[in-house]
TrEMBL record:
GO BP field: exocytosis
Name this protein carries in UniProt: RAB3A interacting protein (rabin3)-like 1
Lineage, broadest ranks: Eukaryota, Metazoa, Chordata, Craniata, Vertebrata
Family: Belongs to the SEC2 family.
GO molecular function: guanyl-nucleotide exchange factor activity
Gene Ontology CC, one term: Golgi to plasma membrane transport vesicle
Record keywords, A-Z: Coiled coil
InterPro entries xrefs: RAB3IL/RAB3IP/Sec2
Protein backbone atom coordinates (compact mmCIF):
# COMPACT_ATOMS: atom_id res chain seq x y z
CA UNK A 1 0.00 0.00 0.00
CA UNK A 2 2.87 2.38 0.83
CA UNK A 3 4.29 1.90 -2.66
CA UNK A 4 1.06 3.27 -4.12
CA UNK A 5 1.44 6.51 -2.12
CA UNK A 6 5.08 6.81 -3.13
CA UNK A 7 4.19 6.43 -6.80
CA UNK A 8 1.38 8.98 -6.55
CA UNK A 9 3.69 11.50 -4.85
CA UNK A 10 6.35 10.89 -7.49
CA UNK A 11 3.89 11.21 -10.40
CA UNK A 12 2.49 14.47 -9.01
CA UNK A 13 6.06 15.82 -8.66
CA UNK A 14 6.92 14.68 -12.18
CA UNK A 15 4.12 16.80 -13.65
CA UNK A 16 6.01 19.92 -12.49
CA UNK A 17 9.47 18.71 -11.45
CA UNK A 18 11.64 21.03 -9.37
CA UNK A 19 14.07 20.94 -6.47
CA UNK A 20 11.44 22.61 -4.28
CA UNK A 21 11.21 20.69 -1.02
CA UNK A 22 7.56 21.60 -0.53
CA UNK A 23 6.39 18.85 -2.90
CA UNK A 24 5.20 15.74 -1.04
CA UNK A 25 7.70 13.63 -3.00
CA UNK A 26 10.84 15.65 -2.22
CA UNK A 27 9.66 16.39 1.31
CA UNK A 28 9.48 12.63 1.96
CA UNK A 29 12.89 11.96 0.37
CA UNK A 30 14.47 14.72 2.48
CA UNK A 31 12.82 13.47 5.67
CA UNK A 32 13.44 9.75 5.14
CA UNK A 33 16.70 9.66 3.16
CA UNK A 34 18.67 12.86 2.55
CA UNK A 35 18.40 14.32 6.06
CA UNK A 36 19.40 11.11 7.88
CA UNK A 37 22.10 10.32 5.31
CA UNK A 38 23.77 13.72 5.73
CA UNK A 39 23.30 13.93 9.49
CA UNK A 40 26.74 13.63 11.07
CA UNK A 41 28.12 14.30 14.56
CA UNK A 42 29.50 17.66 13.41
CA UNK A 43 26.09 19.18 12.67
CA UNK A 44 27.31 22.58 11.47
CA UNK A 45 29.58 20.97 8.89
CA UNK A 46 26.76 18.54 8.00
CA UNK A 47 24.54 21.50 7.07
CA UNK A 48 27.30 23.01 4.92
CA UNK A 49 27.75 19.66 3.16
CA UNK A 50 24.01 19.41 2.49
CA UNK A 51 23.93 22.93 1.04
CA UNK A 52 26.93 22.18 -1.17
CA UNK A 53 25.29 18.96 -2.42
CA UNK A 54 22.04 20.83 -3.16
CA UNK A 55 23.97 23.58 -4.99
CA UNK A 56 26.06 21.03 -6.88
CA UNK A 57 29.23 22.65 -5.53
CA UNK A 58 30.74 19.81 -3.48
CA UNK A 59 33.94 18.14 -4.67
CA UNK A 60 35.15 14.73 -3.47
CA UNK A 61 38.67 13.69 -4.33
CA UNK A 62 41.02 10.89 -3.34
CA UNK A 63 43.88 11.73 -1.02
CA UNK A 64 47.30 10.91 -2.42
CA UNK A 65 48.73 8.94 0.49
CA UNK A 66 52.33 9.59 -0.55
CA UNK A 67 51.69 13.36 -0.54
CA UNK A 68 50.20 13.51 2.95
CA UNK A 69 53.25 15.00 4.69
CA UNK A 70 53.13 17.89 2.22
CA UNK A 71 49.48 18.78 2.94
CA UNK A 72 48.93 22.33 4.20
CA UNK A 73 48.23 22.78 7.89
CA UNK A 74 44.86 24.39 7.13
CA UNK A 75 43.66 21.18 5.53
CA UNK A 76 44.90 19.09 8.44
CA UNK A 77 42.89 21.22 10.84
CA UNK A 78 39.71 20.00 9.13
CA UNK A 79 40.05 16.42 10.29
CA UNK A 80 43.31 15.16 8.87
CA UNK A 81 44.11 11.89 7.12
CA UNK A 82 43.33 9.84 10.24
CA UNK A 83 40.23 11.61 11.55
CA UNK A 84 36.90 12.11 9.79
CA UNK A 85 35.86 15.77 9.85
CA UNK A 86 32.16 14.84 9.77
CA UNK A 87 31.97 12.08 12.38
CA UNK A 88 34.95 13.10 14.50
CA UNK A 89 35.98 9.43 14.60
CA UNK A 90 39.52 8.20 14.12
CA UNK A 91 39.46 6.55 10.70
CA UNK A 92 41.86 6.33 7.80
CA UNK A 93 40.49 8.92 5.38
CA UNK A 94 41.26 8.18 1.76
CA UNK A 95 39.08 11.01 0.45
CA UNK A 96 38.50 14.65 1.20
CA UNK A 97 35.75 17.08 0.30
CA UNK A 98 35.77 20.71 -0.65
CA UNK A 99 32.66 22.86 -0.27
CA UNK A 100 32.28 25.25 -3.17
CA UNK A 101 35.25 27.48 -3.92
CA UNK A 102 36.32 27.77 -0.29
CA UNK A 103 39.93 26.79 0.34
CA UNK A 104 39.43 24.24 3.12
CA UNK A 105 39.47 20.52 2.52
CA UNK A 106 37.75 18.16 4.95
CA UNK A 107 38.99 14.60 5.29
CA UNK A 108 36.18 12.04 5.33
CA UNK A 109 35.95 8.38 6.25
CA UNK A 110 34.81 5.72 3.75
CA UNK A 111 31.43 5.54 5.50
CA UNK A 112 30.92 9.32 5.29
CA UNK A 113 31.97 9.28 1.64
CA UNK A 114 29.42 6.54 0.87
CA UNK A 115 26.64 8.56 2.48
CA UNK A 116 27.55 11.75 0.63
CA UNK A 117 27.95 10.03 -2.75
CA UNK A 118 24.60 8.25 -2.36
CA UNK A 119 22.88 11.62 -1.90
CA UNK A 120 24.89 13.15 -4.77
CA UNK A 121 23.82 10.29 -7.05
CA UNK A 122 20.17 10.96 -6.18
CA UNK A 123 20.51 14.69 -6.89
CA UNK A 124 22.34 14.03 -10.16
CA UNK A 125 19.48 11.87 -11.40
CA UNK A 126 16.86 14.40 -10.28
CA UNK A 127 18.79 17.14 -12.12
CA UNK A 128 18.85 14.95 -15.25
CA UNK A 129 15.06 14.67 -14.99
CA UNK A 130 14.74 18.46 -14.59
CA UNK A 131 16.94 19.02 -17.66
CA UNK A 132 14.88 16.59 -19.75
CA UNK A 133 17.80 14.21 -20.21
CA UNK A 134 15.99 11.09 -18.96
CA UNK A 135 14.20 9.39 -21.86
CA UNK A 136 12.27 6.68 -20.04
CA UNK A 137 8.64 6.23 -19.09
CA UNK A 138 7.37 7.31 -15.68
CA UNK A 139 7.47 3.80 -14.21
CA UNK A 140 11.11 3.24 -15.21
CA UNK A 141 12.09 6.62 -13.79
CA UNK A 142 10.19 5.87 -10.57
CA UNK A 143 12.06 2.58 -10.08
CA UNK A 144 15.41 4.26 -10.69
CA UNK A 145 14.49 6.86 -8.06
CA UNK A 146 13.59 4.02 -5.69
CA UNK A 147 16.94 2.32 -6.39
CA UNK A 148 18.73 5.56 -5.55
CA UNK A 149 16.70 5.87 -2.34
CA UNK A 150 17.74 2.32 -1.45
CA UNK A 151 21.37 3.33 -2.07
CA UNK A 152 20.94 6.16 0.47
CA UNK A 153 19.25 3.83 2.98
CA UNK A 154 22.06 1.27 2.72
CA UNK A 155 24.74 3.97 3.05
CA UNK A 156 23.16 5.54 6.13
CA UNK A 157 23.20 2.09 7.78
CA UNK A 158 26.98 2.14 7.39
CA UNK A 159 27.39 -0.23 4.45
CA UNK A 160 29.81 0.74 1.73
CA UNK A 161 32.09 -0.86 -0.83
CA UNK A 162 35.81 -0.63 -0.26
CA UNK A 163 38.26 -0.13 -3.09
CA UNK A 164 39.36 -3.73 -2.60
CA UNK A 165 35.89 -5.28 -2.94
Amino acid sequence: MMLCFLQVEFLLWREHPSLDRSSAFLSRVYREDIGPCLSFTRSELSQLVQRAVENNSLTIEPVAMSALPLVKASALECGGPKKCALSGLSRVCQHRIKLGDKGSYYYISPSSRARITAVCNFFTYIRYILQGLVRQNAEQIFWEVMRLRREMAVAKLGFYLTDQS
